[in-house]
Amino acid sequence: MIYRVASMFLFVAFPLSAEPVRIKDLVDVDGVRGNDLVGYGLVVGLNGTGDGLRNAPFTEEIMANLLERLGANVAGEEFRPRNVAAVFVTATLPPFARAGSRIDVTVSAIGDAASLRGGTLVMTPMNGADGEIYAVAQGGLIAGGLSAEGEAARVVQGVPTSGTIPSGARVEREVEFDFRALRSLRLALRTPDFTTAGRIETAINKEFGRPIAAMLDAGTVTVNLDRAGTASAAHVMGRVEGLTIQPETRARVVVDQRSGTIVMGRDVRISPVAVAQGGLTLRVSESPLAIQPNPFAAGETVIVPRTDAQIEQEPGTGLAEIAGGTTLSEVVAGLNALGVPPHDMIDILKSIHAAGALHAEFVVN
After folding, report:
1. Alpha-carbon gap, residue 119 to 43, rounded angstroms
2. Which of 125, 150, 171 is the last residue of a domain?
């Protein structure tokens, strides 16, 4: 449901009933995760928008090392091309990635390059946290930004100093992880909740017909593979992740101060409370008056200050009462009936929360 108030939008979502969700969308399997990779390389082929080597000496150094490895000795030479930029290359190595598979990479300039648009990343090794090389990246960049400049003006749209290379890195080394050796699985809930964890436990036990799952806490459910009647952890996970349950979430109100967006969950409740909203505006304007002497008369021009001060009281919305046990739809209808813009609604919700009448987690972004 969308309410338009004071030329801004207030988005409110409240489903009439919770829909079943797959367990694979609610949990992560302990030990099954990605690994961050990073590399340092060069982007070439830029149309005069690369690093100024005088301001980025590290670009000249890595370019000289690269040319040396390719058999070109440039020691002692002075070359200052503007079509080269030093960059950081980052990526995430997904779980179970095998040698030869490809992953996406992100390329970001670290010098004073104006744009990476149209550039090509030269072969760049990508290291993991242990210092080992797990992938090698190379290819043409896709930069979403655009930059244009002249003698006295410059226009920049987006971020031209960052780009991506889809499938730009090839995996060279696999992360050792023997999934078959696991005798138990730990399912970590992305949003810990005792009710949701209990429902996951019940659904798994019902699927296998025996108590193989146990809830440890609000964020963890363990699955005993020895009791599952199969020796394959992958087959057990394949059956578990497709099960559906109805997740539970805490009542939450999320507001964004910058955009004036308010999002409230369907379980938000408000105790009896009265709300009054109004405003006071003070305007001060200066209109100085210049008084000059008569023609050919002795004297000086005098500036006489003139100040106009006005105080305006905006019509208040009066005192509105919200009854106890109010549901989300009633809260939204009541706030919109007050005729206030979203930013004022945020202040009202803050005050209701401070008064202890808003029974929900209040998140301000």
Report:
1. 6
2. 171
